[in-house]
Each structure stands twice: as structure tokens, then as C-alpha cells.
């Protein structure tokens, strides 16, 4: 709290009183300090009765600890010391009268403290009545009454308006002036906090941050801009406005999700880029929804207008793929910044209509580029995310993404968020679309400053955008710009907004476009001439007409023109597109990695359980055997040696949900002391990043997908804690992972590891939703081709399919799957149903011989036992996938049916291994063909496998057999929650497979 120090009359016994003040200071510690009025009364009482108020202040100057904390706070926040106290001169121009009446002392202190409280109220609450809405929609913000901003609330009245008050140090409204009349104080505060900008920042916990923002908004003259900046703003507004008008006239029946009503976004985002470029940024990753996207592509990213116009022509695709609508497309384009003259690469990420789904993907791409460039503080690479107001408040992925912003392995060192706030969500009024005052309130969870700004005040927009860029550069933290505008037309240009917002539409009809408003303002001020402005509009129209004519000559749309993640052509040219190189490695390398993986770090206090785990690892290494954890280490370690960055991300991945991995060892005696074995294999190796994520699937999967799109020379994996938890990331899977290549030509080698298997753990800890991935697969049941025997068949099949889906049963196959993901001449996502019980299963082991040079991924494991020796004796050919194989084999051996029942494991389910399955079908021509799964009939792989096997039998082998299902019956729930019921069901599956009649429940 702030006021000029009111001092008692100097007493003759000053020295004795000073000693008395020190001695009696203890008694002041009994003052509660909880009431402003009570503090004033106590201070007055001290001044009147003990006569040592001045001396207590002087004592405090020498040692703040001698007074109670409340008085310490009181004295600490005093900016100007009157007259001469402790050798400090009084503030110039401030008249502090001699005060003898204690009541006068109380009034003076109270008034100064009240003024200070009023200033703080404007800093905290001024934004609530700021003029940020161009339409001034109901309720009128100008009519909102905030009691804290009134004189009466603080015990002040109009008689105080012309009194001069010294200014506390937390405000900069005075500039070099130490004191101002209250009337002028209020005038300046209202201009700063209640004008076209509303600043929300006082909730931030760090004083340094609040102080920085105050200086950037309160200092007199700080918001002024140059004449050249004004001209630049007008030029950018002109292009934004005229492009929308041109598109509207040329394609009146086309959806474009125009920017009319929020055109200030274009000069605003360019101000962000200009400022960031001047501060050293040379790469900007951008995400945004469809509102205004075409304008950003053209006037911010400077995509050639001819290419933009071709998207309206309805042309066919020049290459394979389904493509996407024009307002979802991305790009990657280098421009020369017109202000700094420096090159800046602008990447706009492709985004579907799930508006905020792209947010974590943008962060992942930005983080990846920072990582590979060694940009450890985000000085060169930054991200900008634009949002719609309704989506920002309504989509949970916004919250998830904000909570990644300061996590060590996920931070992008500050993101600038711009909300293009048109104050309506499709047809939904904001009063029924959110429960918070602002659409931006979610950003407060990370204490991000929020700048609300009137979109019809381009200069205010320019200022907050510059400040936002400077904030990000200074503090490396997120910041939000709430650009408040409106939507001149409906949700899209074919939509009738008056159905649901008639009053708003009437206001919009009367609202002059911001470009015209600003042009008139600058012309009236003499900044630009009307004739020059008119000519600039005509020149831009001529330029658009020329591009329109040239676009008419194009015959196809080239997808490569719209890539947001272009990879170097050398990556594709250097690969063998016919065969897959061997994924095996030298046995000596396997032995070395396994020994290092089992090595106990020196000078490290390990948990006794970790010691046991390391002992087991050493035993396995000595026997040249790998369990699942060892296979992971061998695969990833061998890739690290080859210069491939390996990143494993997800909930609890460092230890592993099932405590099998332990890739981060923790010292039991020193906090934050860890050892990561795979980062200590060789002096020169690629980095291994293993990082526990926040408890998020949607956000983190999107982040790691974005990370994987940056470089082909990285193995990026996201692991679900349980496969079931992939449910909450389904939007990212549907919109990006599954279809990203078909729509946008985005290549990604992302690996999704989904723990899967029926082990009696209940309906939420059982299924990785295998059936969903198979249903979304793009391979056809009729796609068995005659050239299956050709060397290129496997590569071609993988390339034609949108992703790979596997349910692996051996550590060696996992090893090869990881290495094949990097060996392929292209990238497709890999979905693996990873095991749970098999992680430590005694039979789920592989020898090093299964991983040496010359070995490869087994798409299927054929029958190799007695049934294979005499195929004619086999009565049942069982195809299965996953850990149920081990249970079937155990049951078969127990029933002594090894010569009658053949077991074939399908490891790579998609793309379907037609060639190998056909070989097994032909090998056992007299056997009944069945598919056995532990999942329910409406789940798992059955509905995917059935048409493919039947097509093989009927169309390609002229075989009358049909595959039959054995497993649990269809169920709405993925698993029972009762352990006994689970065991009964599992036993029934095994019995039915062995031809022992039983009801499968």
C-alpha cells in the first residue's frame, strides 16, 4: 500500500525516541495488519501518544526487521519520502505540511492509501469496462458499473479530484512526474485500462512480470507509433479487405470462411512476425482454424495468389491422394520480412474442422525444429496459434496444450495465441456457450497475460501484438491476444446469420469496415493522401485480376505446393524402393548394448529392486536372450548408433506402466539425480529422449505427431498407459494419424504403443481398440495381387496403406518392427498392440540370433511343430494374433493335439499378409480354417480378417472353405470386470478351439 510518509513533528529527544522505537517495535508486531483503517488508526495513535512515528520509520530504514511485517509492507511500498528522512530528500513539488493533529495524520494517510488502492483497482479491473467490442453488444460494457473503480468505494469524493497525490512505485502513468492531481490520475488510468485495450495480468504471481507489462502499457507515449507504421497498417488492411471482396465477387457461392469483421488480424499477426524477426526469430510455425485462413495464406505467408485461386477452380489432383478443401490446407514458405529484411520461414499446419485439434501438433513441430537446430531457448523458432472464440472456450485440447507449455520436454519456450473473436460460435451466442466472462479465461491456468483489444482500432491491435512478441522473447512464456471483432456474414458465406442473430446482424450492417474507418482517419490526419490510397486499391485489384487469369490456365492442383512438412528430396532418392534393407544387426553390437543396458552406474544409490532388475539383464545378456525390455533397448540403442534420434513419450514411460522398462534410474539419496543408460552407449550417438508426459492423451499424442513430422530421421513413439486410454485421443487419430497423408501428403513415422490383452483387468484396462484401427485402414479386402511374389510387393503394399497395425508376440519381432520403421523408403504411422503379461512371460523371449544380420520382421509366424511335419493329418488350421497364441499352444500341448491343430500367428495384421496366409492355407488343404481371438466378436481383428481370408480362398484359390470364428460373443463392453467371469470366458475360448464343447459367454 502506498502513500507519502506522514511524519510527526520532530521531537527534541529524537535520539532517545529512536532507541525507544526500536525497543517498542516489538509491541507493533501485535498489530494484525489485516485492516487498512485499523492500520491507519494504529499509526495515528503511535504518532499522538508515543511520539516516535518518525523514529520508527528511521529505525526501519536501518533494519526492516525491527517492525511488524504489516509496517514493513507499509514502509516498503512508500515511493516518496517527504522532506528529509534518513538522508532522503522529499519529492520535488510535493507539499507536505507540518502536521500536529493526529486526525489530520489519519486523513492524509487514508487518502493517499485510498488513491493507491484506486490505481490498483484500475490495474485489476479496468479491462472489465474497456472499449474492446466494436459493436458494443448488450450488455453495454460502457454501462457496466465496477464499484472498485468509483471514488466512493475508496472513501474519496469530488473534493479530492484536484488534490495532488504522490504516485506509488507500481504505476508508471506519471512518467517522470512523481505526483499528479487525482483527476489526471483517473484520466490516464481510464485511457490505459478502459480504452481499446483491456489488459488482464494482475493475477500473475511474479512481480517482475507485472512490472514489465505495466511499463509497456502505462508509460506515457509508449503506445504511440510512427507515421510509417500507420501507413504499413493501412496497406495491410487494404489487402486483407480487398482480397475478401475479390473472392466474394468471383466465387459468391463458394465457402471461404472470410475474415470480414476481423481484418485487423492481418496487420496484427504481421506485427508479431515483424517484431519477432527483429528479435532473431527466423522460423514461425502457425496453426489456425478456417476463419480467415485464405487471407493469412495470401497476405501473411505470401503464397502466390495464382496457387490460392486454383483451389477455387475445382481442378483434379496432379498426384495421388484425396486432397482437402482449400481452407484446411497448409504450406511451408520462406519470405523476406519487409520490415527487417531478414528471411523467415512460415509454416502453416494443415488443420481439419476440429478447430483446436492442430494446437498440440503445432507445438510438437515447433519443439522438434528447436530440438534439431539446437535452439534450446526458442530464440530462432517460435509458434503462433490462432483460435476461434467459441472453440477456445469449448475444446478441452486447448487446456491440455496450455499445460504442455512449460514441461521440460514439451515446452516451445512461449507461444503467442491470437483469438479471432467474432463473438459467436456458428449460431450460438456466447452467453450460452461458456460459463466464464471471457473466452480466454482458460489461459489463466498457466498465468499467461491476456490482452483484449478492439479489432476496429488497428493501432491498438498493432501495439498489443508487438508487446506480445516482446513478452515471448523476454520471458519465453505463453501470451494471449483476444482480438475482438465480429462476423459480417454467416458462419460461411452460404449461411444465413439472421436466422439466429438478427439484432447483431443489424448492427453489423451499420458498421463501417475497419479499413475504411482507418483510411478516413489517416487521410483526415494528413498521413496519407486520398488519391494515393485510391490508386493503391486499384493496383492491388489489378494484381489480383492478373493472378486470377493465370490460375485459369492451370489444369491440376499440385499437392506439393501445399505441404506443411516438406522433407529433403535426398531422403527419398537415397532409399531402395524395391526391397527393405535387413533390419538385423551384428551380434557383437547386440552384446555391447545389452551389457551397457545392464550396467550399474558408479557412485549411484540404486533401489534394491533395480539391482535385481540389472542382475536379470546381465543374465539375459550373458545367455544372448532378450525379453521385451531388452528388445526395446537393443532396437533403440542400435538406431542411436546410426544417428537416429529416438523419442519415447507418454504417461509413465520412463519406468513403464508395468515396471518393465526402467530407462531412467533414480538415485535413492539425491533428489533429481538420474541416470539414463541409453544415453551413455557411445560418446558420439544420437540423443535418446524418454519423457513422462502430463496426464493427457489428446494433447500429447498430437504433440508427438507434430514432432514426428519434422524429420524422417527420428523414431518418435507415443505410449498409452493402457491401450484403452487411446479413446481420448480419437480425434487426433481420425483427423491426422489416419488420414493426414491422404489429405495433405504429410508423412509421419509416428509409432503408437498401446498395451492390449485380456488379462482380467476390467473393461478399461484391456483393449487398445484394435478394431478401430483396422476399420480405418485403407487397404482393400480384394487387394491380393498376382505380383505378390515380386520383391517390391511388401514395399508397395506398405506404401499404398495409410498405416501399419501389428499385434506382436516376440521381442525379436518388436526389435525388427522398430528398425523397419526407419529402414522404409517412406514414412507411415505404426500402430502396435503391445503386450502386458508378455512383457515378463517366460516364453516370450527371443535369442540374439533372431536379430542378427539377415533376419527381418516376421509378418506371420507359421506352424513349425508336428502339425507342419504332417500337414495332411491336421484337422484344424487356427489363425490368431497376440498373446492368446501362448495360451492356445499350452492348451494344445496339454490336450496332446499338436499334430491335429496348426497354430499360425498373424503379427502384421495391416496391411494384410495375403501372400504368407495363402501359403498356410495351401499347406493345410484338408483343415478347417478358424480365426481365434480373445476379444469379443464385434472387436479385435475378426471383422477385418474374415473377408480377406474368404476372398483368398474363394477368388484366388478356388477353395470352398470359409474361415470360422471362435471367441467371445459380441459385447458392448470390451471386457468383464469380474475376474472369475474372465477366467471362465478365456477357458471357453481355449476349449472351443480344441473342439471341447462349451458355451462361450
Automatic annotation (TrEMBL):
<keyword id="KW-0324">Glycolysis</keyword>
<keyword id="KW-0460">Magnesium</keyword>
<protein>
    <recommendedName>
        <fullName>2-oxoglutarate dehydrogenase, mitochondrial</fullName>
        <ecNumber>1.2.4.2</ecNumber>
    </recommendedName>
</protein>
<dbReference type="GO" id="GO:0006096">
    <property type="term" value="P:glycolytic process"/>
</dbReference>
<dbReference type="InterPro" id="IPR011603">
    <property type="entry name" value="2oxoglutarate_DH_E1"/>
</dbReference>
<keyword id="KW-0496">Mitochondrion</keyword>
<keyword id="KW-0560">Oxidoreductase</keyword>
<dbReference type="GO" id="GO:0006099">
    <property type="term" value="P:tricarboxylic acid cycle"/>
</dbReference>
<dbReference type="InterPro" id="IPR031717">
    <property type="entry name" value="ODO-1/KGD_C"/>
</dbReference>
<keyword id="KW-0479">Metal-binding</keyword>
<keyword id="KW-0786">Thiamine pyrophosphate</keyword>
<comment type="similarity">
    <text>Belongs to the alpha-ketoglutarate dehydrogenase family.</text>
</comment>
<dbReference type="Pfam" id="PF16078">
    <property type="entry name" value="2-oxogl_dehyd_N"/>
</dbReference>
<dbReference type="InterPro" id="IPR032106">
    <property type="entry name" value="2-oxogl_dehyd_N"/>
</dbReference>
<dbReference type="GO" id="GO:0005739">
    <property type="term" value="C:mitochondrion"/>
</dbReference>
<feature type="domain" description="Transketolase-like pyrimidine-binding">
    <location>
        <begin position="626"/>
        <end position="841"/>
    </location>
</feature>
<dbReference type="InterPro" id="IPR042179">
    <property type="entry name" value="KGD_C_sf"/>
</dbReference>
<dbReference type="InterPro" id="IPR005475">
    <property type="entry name" value="Transketolase-like_Pyr-bd"/>
</dbReference>
<dbReference type="Pfam" id="PF16870">
    <property type="entry name" value="OxoGdeHyase_C"/>
</dbReference>
<comment type="function">
    <text>The 2-oxoglutarate dehydrogenase complex catalyzes the overall conversion of 2-oxoglutarate to succinyl-CoA and CO(2). It contains multiple copies of three enzymatic components: 2-oxoglutarate dehydrogenase (E1), dihydrolipoamide succinyltransferase (E2) and lipoamide dehydrogenase (E3).</text>
</comment>
<dbReference type="InterPro" id="IPR001017">
    <property type="entry name" value="DH_E1"/>
</dbReference>
<dbReference type="GO" id="GO:0046872">
    <property type="term" value="F:metal ion binding"/>
</dbReference>
<dbReference type="GO" id="GO:0030976">
    <property type="term" value="F:thiamine pyrophosphate binding"/>
</dbReference>
<dbReference type="GO" id="GO:0045252">
    <property type="term" value="C:oxoglutarate dehydrogenase complex"/>
</dbReference>
<dbReference type="GO" id="GO:0004591">
    <property type="term" value="F:oxoglutarate dehydrogenase (succinyl-transferring) activity"/>
</dbReference>
<dbReference type="Pfam" id="PF02779">
    <property type="entry name" value="Transket_pyr"/>
</dbReference>
<dbReference type="Pfam" id="PF00676">
    <property type="entry name" value="E1_dh"/>
</dbReference>
<keyword id="KW-0809">Transit peptide</keyword>
<dbReference type="InterPro" id="IPR029061">
    <property type="entry name" value="THDP-binding"/>
</dbReference>
Amino acid at each position: 500500500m502506498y502513500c507519502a510518509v506522514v511524519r510527526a513533528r520532530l521531537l527534541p529527544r529524537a535520539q532517545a525516541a529512536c532507541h525507544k522505537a526500536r525497543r517498542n517495535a516489538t509491541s507493533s508486531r501485535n498489530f494484525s495488519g489485516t485492516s487498512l483503517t485499523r492500520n491507519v488508526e494504529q499509526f495515528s495513535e503511535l504518532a499522538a501518544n508515543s511520539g516516535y512515528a518518525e523514529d520508527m520509520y528511521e529505525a526501519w530504514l536501518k533494519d526492516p526487521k525491527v517492525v511488524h511485517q504489516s509496517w514493513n509492507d507499509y514502509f516498503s511500498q512508500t515511493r516518496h519520502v517527504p522532506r528529509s528522512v534518513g538522508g532522503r530528500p522529499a519529492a520535488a513539488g510535493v507539499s507536505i505540511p507540518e502536521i500536529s493533529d493526529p486526525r489530520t495524520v489519519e486523513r492524509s494517510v487514508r487518502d493517499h492509501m485510498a488513491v493507491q488502492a484506486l490505481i490498483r483497482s484500475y490495474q485489476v479491473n479496468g479491462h472489465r469496462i474497456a472499449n474492446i467490442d466494436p459493436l458494443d453488444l448488450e450488455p453495454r460494457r460502457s454501462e457496466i458499473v465496477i464499484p472498485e473503480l468509483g471514488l466512493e468505494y475508496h472513501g474519496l469524493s469530488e473534493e479530492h479530484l484536484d488534490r495532488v497525490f504522490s504516485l506509488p512505485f507500481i504505476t508508471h502513468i506519471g512518467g517522470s512526474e512523481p505526483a499528479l492531481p487525482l483527476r489526471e490520475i483517473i484520466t490516464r488510468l481510464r485511457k490505459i485500462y478502459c480504452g481499446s485495450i483491456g489488459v488482464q495480468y494482475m493475477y500473475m504471481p511474479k512481480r517482475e512480470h507485472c512490472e514489465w507489462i505495466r511499463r509497456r502499457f502505462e508509460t506515457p507515449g509508449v503506445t504511440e507509433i510512427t507515421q510509417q507504421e500507420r501507413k504499413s497498417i493501412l496497406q495491410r488492411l487494404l489487402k486483407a479487405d480487398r482480397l475478401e471482396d475479390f473472392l466474394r465477387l468471383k466465387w459468391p457461392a463458394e465457402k471461404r470462411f472470410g475474415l470480414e469483421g476481423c481484418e485487423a488480424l492481418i496487420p496484427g499477426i504481421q506485427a508479431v512476425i515483424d517484431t519477432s524477426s527483429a528479435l532473431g526469430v527466423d522460423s514461425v510455425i502457425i496453426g489456425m482454424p478456417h476463419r480467415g485462413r485464405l487471407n493469412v495464406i495470401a497476405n501473411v505467408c505470401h503464397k502466390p495468389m495464382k496457387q490460392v485461386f486454383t483451389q477455387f477452380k475445382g481442378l483434379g489432383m496432379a498426384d495421388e491422394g484425396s486432397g482437402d478443401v482449400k481452407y484446411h490446407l497448409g504450406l511451408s514458405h520462406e519470405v523476406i520480412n519487409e520490415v527487417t529484411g531478414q528471411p523467415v520461414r512460415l509454416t502453416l499446419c494443415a488443420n481439419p474442422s476440429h478447430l483446436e485439434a492442430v494446437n498440440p501438433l503445432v507445438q510438437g513441430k515447433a519443439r522438434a525444429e528447436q530440438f534439431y537446430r539446437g535452439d534450446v531457448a526458442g530464440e530462432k523458432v517460435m509458434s503462433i496459434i490462432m483460435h476461434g472464440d467459441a472453440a477456445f472456450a469449448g475444446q478441452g485440447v486447448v487446456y491440455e496444450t496450455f499445460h504442455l507449455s512449460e514441461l521440460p520436454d514439451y515446452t516451445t519456450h512461449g507461444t503467442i495465441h491470437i483469438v479471432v473473436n467474432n463473438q459467436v460460435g456458428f449460431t450460438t451466442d456466447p452467453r450460452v456457450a461458456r460459463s466464464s466472462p471471457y473466452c480466454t479465461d482458460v489461459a489463466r491456468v498457466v498465468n499467461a497475460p491476456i490482452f483484449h483489444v478492439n479489432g476496429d482500432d488497428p493501432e491498438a491491435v498493432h501495439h498489443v501484438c508487438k508487446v506480445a512478441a516482446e513478452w515471448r522473447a523476454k520471458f519465453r512464456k505463453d501470451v494471449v491476444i483476444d482480438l475482438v471483432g465480429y462476423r459480417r456474414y454467416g458462419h460461411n458465406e452460404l449461411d444465413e446469420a439472421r436466422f439466429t442473430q438478427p439484432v447483431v446482424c443489424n448492427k453489423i450492417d451499420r458498421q463501417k469496415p475497419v479499413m475504411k474507418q482507418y483510411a478516413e482517419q489517416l487521410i483526415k490526419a494528413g498521413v496519407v493522401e486520398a488519391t494515393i490510397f485510391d490508386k493503391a486499391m486499384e493496383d492491388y485489384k489489378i494484381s489480383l485480376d492478373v493472378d486470377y487469369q493465370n490460375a485459369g490456365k492451370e489444369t491440376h492442383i499440385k499437392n506439393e505446393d501445399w505441404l506443411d512438412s516438406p522433407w529433403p528430396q535426398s531422403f527419398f532418392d537415397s532409399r531402395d524402393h524395391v526391397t527393405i534393407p535387413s533390419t538385423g544387426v551384428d551380434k557383437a553390437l547386440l552384446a555391447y548394448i545389452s551389457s551397457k543396458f545392464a550396467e550399474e552406474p558408479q557412485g549411484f544409490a540404486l533401489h534394491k529392486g533395480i539391482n535385481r532388475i540389472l542382475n536379470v539383464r546381465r543374465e539375459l545378456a550373458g545367455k544372448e536372450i532378450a525379453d521385451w525390455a531388452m528388445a526395446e533397448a537393443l532396437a533403440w540403442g542400435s538406431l542411436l548408433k546410426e544417428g537416429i534420434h529416438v523419442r519415447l513419450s507418454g504417461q509413465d514411460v520412463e519406468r513403464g506402466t508395468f515396471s518393465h522398462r526402467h530407462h531412467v534410474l533414480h538415485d535413492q539419496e539425491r533428489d533429481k539425480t538420474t541416470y539414463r543408460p541409453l544415453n551413455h552407449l557411445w560418446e558420439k550417438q544420437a540423443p535418446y529422449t524418454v519423457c513422462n508426459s502430463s496426464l493427457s492423451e489428446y494433447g500429447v499424442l498430437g504433440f508427438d505427431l507434430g514432432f514426428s513430422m519434422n524429420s524422417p530421421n527420428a523414431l518418435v513413439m507415443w505410449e498409452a498407459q493402457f491401450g484403452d486410454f487411446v479413446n481420448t485421443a480419437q480425434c487426433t487419430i481420425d483427423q491426422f494419424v489416419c488420414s493426414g497423408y491422404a489429405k495433405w501428403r504429410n508423412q509421419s513415422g509416428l509409432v503408437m504403443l498401446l498395451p492390449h490383452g485380456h488379462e482380467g483387468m476390467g473393461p478399461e484396462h484391456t483393449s487398445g481398440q484394435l478394431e478401430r484401427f483396422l476399420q480405418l485402414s485403407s487397404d482393400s479386402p480384394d487387394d491380393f495381387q498376382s505380383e505378390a511374389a515380386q520383391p517390391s510387393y511388401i514395399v508397395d503394399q506398405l506404401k499404398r496403406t495409410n498405416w501399419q497395425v501389428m499385434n506382436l508376440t516376440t521381442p525379436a519381432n518388436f526389435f525388427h518392427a522398430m528398425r523397419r520403421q526407419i529402414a522404409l523408403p517412406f514414412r507411415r504411422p505404426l500402430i502396435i498392440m503391445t503386450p502386458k503379461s508378455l512383457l515378463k512371460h517366460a516364453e516370450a523371449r527371443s535369442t540374439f540370433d533372431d536379430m542378427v544380420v539377415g533376419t527381418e520382421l516376421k509378418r506371420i509366424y507359421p506352424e513349425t511343430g508336428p502339425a507342419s511335419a504332417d500337414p495332411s493329418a491336421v484337422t484344424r488350421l487356427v489363425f490368431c494374433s497376440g498373446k492368446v497364441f501362448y495360451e492356445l499352444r499350452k492348451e494344445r500341448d496339454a490336450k496332446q493335439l499338436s499334430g491335429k491343430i496348426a497354430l499360425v500367428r498373424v503379427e502384421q495384421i495391416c496391411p494384410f499378409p495375403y501372400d504368407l496366409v495363402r501359403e498356410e492355407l495351401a499347406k493345410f488343404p484338408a483343415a478347417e480354417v478358424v480365426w481365434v481371438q480373445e476379444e469379443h466378436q464385434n472387436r479385435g481383428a475378426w471383422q477385418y480378417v474374415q473377408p480377406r481370408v474368404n476372398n483368398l480362398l474363394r477368388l484366388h484359390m478356388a477353395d470352398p472353405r470359409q474361415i470360422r470364428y471362435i471367441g467371445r460373443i459380441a459385447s458392448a463392453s470390451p471386457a468383464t470386470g469380474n475376474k472369475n467371469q474372465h477366467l471362465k470366458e478365456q477357458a471357453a475360448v481355449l476349449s472351443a478351439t480344441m473342439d471341447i464343447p462349451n458355451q462361450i459367454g
